[in-house]
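During the reporting period the student researcher (J.K.) took over the structure-prediction task from the postdoctoral fellow and processed the backlog of single-chain submissions. One of the processed entries is reproduced below for the supervisory committee.
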Amino acid sequence: MSSADNILILGSGGQIGTDLVHTLRTELGGDRVIAADVKDQEGYLKESGPFFKLDVMDGQAIADVIKANKVKHVYLLAALLSATAEQKMKMAWKLNMEGLFNVLDIAKELGGMRIFWPSSIAVFGPTTPRVNTPQFTTMEPTTVYGISKQAGERWCEYYFNKFGVDVRSIRYPGLISYKAQPGGGTTDYAVDIYHQALDKGSYNCFLKEDTALPMMYMPDAIRATLELMNADADKIKIRSSYNLAGISFTPREIANEIKKHIPEFQISYEPDFRQAIADSWPMSIDDTRAQDDWGWVPYYDMASMTKDMLLHLKEARMSAEH
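J.K. obtained the following structure tokens:
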């Protein structure tokens, strides 16, 4: 990427976008990293660099921003997540698919661009092997979100093979961050539990205590995303989406880890409709291909993640009080 090329992050107000904008602006400077979201934003996203209010379903508006700002890397993060998408089925399909088509078509037309589009463990379903889920396996998703992500993977691969669009993707596990609030995903209990532990000393979990799911601490997820995007094109052997693994744990295990820092913390369980979603997803992921192709290695385990999460959340609360 040359020093004149700029980056556009669509859906920058979400969980991944918030962290990604911060990381890239810190590395490259605010002017080169353009944040965009369908909702107007306050604070860091608007104050530290350019911001546009953009709807991913408005392809012309996206194309205009890309051309006017010499954008060469686009991160398409706008989507309706798993639990929210189940409540708004057709809207979720329309948003998740049309947004992807708009960006792929712009990249096809302009050429010389690199696109990142996130997939998810939601592409897998109850017929998928749930332990060490392979890169290539049965994929029969049972959620609107998973169906849209599986279709999106196929379209990404198609646009690469047919039109040479340099599109790259990761199947994110559940993501845990202290910078953004939970965004409507089934794995978001693993973010909310830390907030509730500090604010109330207790948490009522919407999943059963022994529900193991693949998770990843956000600093690892951002690093993986940037390593994938910065890798030479010939190293990217998979153009649908790469499996990515970090940490797999259950609500009980994360609660026990929190108790090491907050001994009085209590957890209760009241499973809701999200339990069925979680039961259709993998328990652990085999990401050998990401390791082999572009050198992926996670840094954080459950203990180091919990220590870091609680530290940053406590700091945020102290600064808010002053």
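The committee noted the following: The radius of gyration is 19 Å.
J.K. will present the remaining backlog at the next meeting.
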